[in-house]
UniProtKB/TrEMBL annotation:
Pfam families associated with the record: HTH_3 (PF01381)
InterPro entries: Cro/C1-type_HTH, Lambda_DNA-bd_dom_sf, TransReg_Diox_bact_type
Keyword hit for Cell wall biogenesis/degradation: no
Region named Disordered: 111-144
Domain HTH cro/C1-type: 15-69
SMART domains, alphabetized: HTH_XRE
UniProt superkingdom: Bacteria
Alphabetical list of PANTHER family matching this protein: HTH-TYPE TRANSCRIPTIONAL REGULATOR, METHYLPHOSPHONATE SYNTHASE
Alphabetic keyword roster: DNA-binding
Protein name: Helix-turn-helix domain-containing protein
Amino acid sequence: MEKVADIASDIGEYIRQQRSNAKISLRQLSKLAGVSNPYLSQIERGVRKPSAEILQQIAKGLRISAEALYVQAGILDLPTGGPVGDAIRADAELTERQKQVLLDVYESFRRENSASRPVAESAATPKTTAPGAEDPEDTTKESA
């Protein structure tokens, strides 16, 4: 039960931090998210753990990805992406929206490169000739 309280506290703190970064008052966010002011206050203080639906509404009000809130709330596992993705997610100087855009661009480059890799590798693979066989492109041998 202690773990649930920690998660509620963590998500509340995270929401408060995002609200503060966006320079939105508690009252403004409650209107944007369509949740009552007291309920949002309880979430931020860690008294209540919001449902996925409420988190989605709050994310919409904060203009951040719902996935970011789901990860913070323990609903979703932190996506893998290696050290670059981890560094982007950990950067406190970036907003959630900026982080998501960077991650999307990075992943699109990775997908593009992995899709083109088999073609590039086959072109770069050195040609091998069976042992003892003559290479028809070998012009160093003199013909008799």
